[in-house]
Specification:
The complex is a heterodimer of chains A (about 160) and B (about 500). With about 160 residues, chain A is mainly β. Chain A contains one helix and 16 strands. In chain A, about 5% of the residues lie in helices and about 60% in strands. In chain A, the strands form three sheets. In chain A, strands 1-2-3-4-5-6-7-8 form an eight-stranded antiparallel β-barrel. In chain A, strands 9-16-14-11 form a four-stranded antiparallel β-sheet, with no helix packed on it. Chain B has about 500 residues and is an alpha+beta fold. Chain B is built from 19 helices and 22 strands. In chain B, helix 4 runs antiparallel to helix 5, helix 12 packs antiparallel against helix 13 and helix 16 runs antiparallel to helix 18. Chain B is globular, with a radius of gyration of 25 Å. Chain B starts with a strand and ends with a helix. Classes of the chains: A mainly beta (about 160), B alpha+beta (about 500). At the A-B interface, strand 1, strand 2, strand 3, strand 4 and strand 5 of A face helix 13, helix 16, helix 18 and helix 19 of B.
Amino acid sequence: MIFKINIGDTTYRMKVERAGPEWRCELDGQFIQVQAHLVRRDVMTLITNGKTYEIKRDQLGNQVRIWIENVPYAVELSDPRSLASRSRNRGTSGTSKLLASMPGKILRVLATEMEQVEAGQALVVVEAMKMQNEIKSPSKGVVRQLVPEGTYVNAGDVLAIVE
Amino acid sequence: MFKKILIANRGEIAVRVIRACREMGIIPVAVYSDADCAALHVRHASEAYSIGASSALESYLNIEKIIAVARLSGADALHPGYGFLSENADFAEACANAGIKFIGPSPESIRIMGSKTGARQEMEKNGVPCVPGTSQALPSFEEATRIAEDVGYPVMLKAAAGGGGKGMRLVREPRELRMALEAAQSESQRAFNDGSVYIEKAIVNPRHIEIQVLADEHGNTIHLGERECSIQRRHQKVLEESPSPFVDTSLRKQMGEVAVQAASAVGYTNAGTVEFLVNQDKNFYFLEMNTRLQVEHPVTELVTGFDLVQMQIRIAAGERLPIRQEDVHFRGHAMECRIYAEDPDNHYFPSPGKITLLQEPAGPGVRLDTGVYEGWTVPSDYDPLLAKLTAYGESREQVVTRLLRALDETFVGGIQTNIELFRRILNDASFRDGQIDTGFLDRVMASGPVGTNHEHSDIAALAAGLFTALNGTSMRDSITRNPVDATGSESRWKQAARIESLQCHTSNDLQN
């Protein structure tokens, strides 16, 4: 399996395949052998190089978080070969509303009103739970109704509209 | 002894009372709103009755319905818990009229202590030290100006019928008074349907220390020492401990005696708490009396060894206190964290929702009073307290490290909680030093969130991929076994696309 994984500003490319009882992983070209077991749903024990981690996973709004030693990492994972991610990247037409998935603060606004944006272009940075998340345009279009910087938003609030 | 007790509450406190009932061979009866029909307290009880819609006003605050259900169930006593109707004198009276014993003080005691100005008057009459100020509602702005000058700025405006920090305003200088008075009056009018406001001298950076009292119905009143409750946000407690690092044996004795005096003055019975503000010079002033069991009662239970809820029930059943003041001994140290579904870095915004993953702490010296379970959806209709994590140990130092360890074992997934906030508090140098006052938490929060160390980003990336890889196989199996697919109504193409999308969106695995 091949994945593209975004954590914050970093994009990882990962290849993973089973190797007997272990998993052979290739992370950005580096080979790592790990023992990984699902203890129960959303709880994994991972051992690599003699170091052991209990890793949890949860989701807040549409943000998937991986927890390691009580620190949450907001992850975005896609399979670059998959149909879904290809169509997502190509962009769709029509109007799309960007909604806040959880309460947070608008840290930065990266686009301007009526600006022509590309699919995947970052529009605003929302800070919630000490994590900064870039909210990207789902499609190519013109930005309207951008939320101002510094606003506290609740889950479901409109952050921007792309037409 | 009672045969059946109805618990007019929900959440962790309802579970706590049910546990006491079980240990005493009493049948526990739960009540529940629509949002709570599968709540933990309902699961623990022997009997459960619906009391209406999710809104607290239509259910847990509905005196008529609760009394009707208590009658229907044949309960001979009722425990009100804390919050909701626990300090409502009319409710206590309605119980008495229905022939159901209210596990708490008399309606008269509740009434006197429920009015902050009334309580002040009663305390002043009985020589209990109060914060300098008025014990009358302010009739006019002019009068307010005169009294404020008299006691000296800064002053605190408080709602006579108040509680929970509503209708309270700090006034630093004369020119702020008029606006603050209007704001406090309108706020308390809205919150309590009573706009009366009075003035107290503001004690700068006080400690909030309270004394637990117990009184039987035969005239015996004792105290069980203090609880330090200075770690607060917006006048709401977040973390409590006993003993207070500030209170020595002589201050404890002094405050304890005054608390007993305060309770006796109003003919108080059952468990109650006398709250004091304590200044840097160890002068203490009566703040208010809570005529019910407190949220933070576990810390007192741990350092005294007494089960407060069982004692409440025994007192209500007419038993005498089994101990005298000299039989109360304090041992070790206890500290409680109130775990809320809220975001401390986002104005403590509540975060209700489904708990998708729950891991609870255990091990030496750890007590968990919880009202939730994995798979439970925390309703948005009530206070977002999920659980109380209390640690006990031989010293304050040991308790702090024990709590940190227990917090590390705790995981609540799917909603936001304030667990991280406790790490910040417990690791703070001033806190470890015992240098705390009611301004502590605001100062900690003002220093901003601690920079999170994302040193394990690469492991997180590995894990994200591996979660999907490990789930992928089982996910594929579950889909091929899906009866919808077996009918052949879906094409192979659609099926493949679904499997693919399940594999590539971690989020989909989590929907459930």
